[in-house]
Amino acid sequence: MTRDAVVVEAVRTPVGRRGGGLSGVHAADLSAHVLTALVERAGIDPVVIDDVVWGCVSQVGDQPSNIGRYAVLAAGWPESIPGTTVNRACGSSQQALDFAAQAVLSGQQDVVVAGGVEVMSRVPLGATGTPYGPSVLRRYDGFSFDQGLSAERIARKWGLSRARLDEYAARSHRRAAAAQDAGAFDGQLVPVHADGVTVRADEGVRRDTSVEVLAGLRPSFAADGVIHARNASQICDGAAALLVTTSDRARELGLTPLVRYRAGVVVGSDPVLMLTGPIPATGEVLRRADLSLAEIGVFEVDEAFAPVPLAWLAETGVNPHRVNPLGGAIALGHPRGASGAVLMTRMIHHMLAGGILYGLQTMCEGGGTANATVVELVA
């Protein structure tokens, strides 16, 4: 029988706002929290796990070296279980899922945990320094590789006005609030107890947000720009984990597959526009999955900045109701190294709740790359 790769469990912490309820938790401990919940909910002994592939972007301060390995040790798992850390910028934990699936599909491993963490309250943006050198600057005419400036360029190229971006941002908050009220996230969330407080829900949702409120905010990157703090993703903290195996091994372990990994790709794109990679990545992953846009029931397109999903929508023509239906990073936050696994966890549970056969997730990434992944409902 041909090997497949299936996700049998997917959990995440609430996403905490900067300085919020998760800000006092070390990244290794926050990671351990979801690892522990993952095996408890699956009902397995962690000894069966062959590897842990963990995404993390800012690998300095509290998140240095191989945080994936220290997460395993913090969880109290057997010392025989290895761990590795992936940095594909904001797509790190989505890439972790791709690597886990590839290891399982190849037969090199049978049970792999994929996920990631970022505690941005403790390791702020820019803490890792400058990743490019003089040769890169010369090649791209001295562009600073500031993602905010790239988002401004995308808005200009696709003719996206400030009002359009703010309308999208307000909608993200409305959708996220409605999802919280409906209990859409309850089955996937692992409450976190820290400093005498229990964080049970995503902290970034602003229920009073409106286009009128957003219109009063100053641009963040250019005096005449359209990008500001609230039509961009929130700086935040979080972790998420998924358990990947084969259908046969799941059966042996008494586990029920939730979704089957259908295809995954990563592409390079213009590093100055930087955040448009999800457009070609979507086409490529659909080709590999042998599916059409019309067959996909839900899309998760990371809301790093509002122009990213809006440009993607303009190019694909997808019905906006199928894109980020529960809100996105503008409302729910973007804990960078964890975001890919957070989005996938949200999408899987949404597919389960709605009986949606196919879901597609895509993530823009610093430096001009993008991941895209298609999963198929099997539960």
UniProtKB/TrEMBL annotation:
- Which InterPro entries does the entry link to? Thiolase, Thiolase-like, Thiolase_C, Thiolase_CS, Thiolase_N
One term of GO molecular function:
acyltransferase activity, transferring groups other than amino-acyl groups
Domain Thiolase C-terminal stretches:
256-376
Q: Which UniProt keywords apply?
A: Acyltransferase, Transferase
- Catalytic-site annotation from UniProt: 90, 334, 364
Q: Which Pfam families does this entry report, sorted A to Z? A: Thiolase_C, Thiolase_N
Q: Which stretches make up the Thiolase N-terminal domain?
A: 6-247
NCBIfam families documented for this protein: AcCoA-C-Actrans
Protein family per UniProt: Belongs to the thiolase-like superfamily. Thiolase family.
Query: What PANTHER family does its record include?
Result: ACETYL-COA C-ACYLTRANSFERASE (PTHR43365:SF1), BLR7806 PROTEIN (PTHR43365)
Q: What is this protein called?
A: Acetyl-CoA acyltransferase
Give the organism, scientific name.
Actinophytocola oryzae
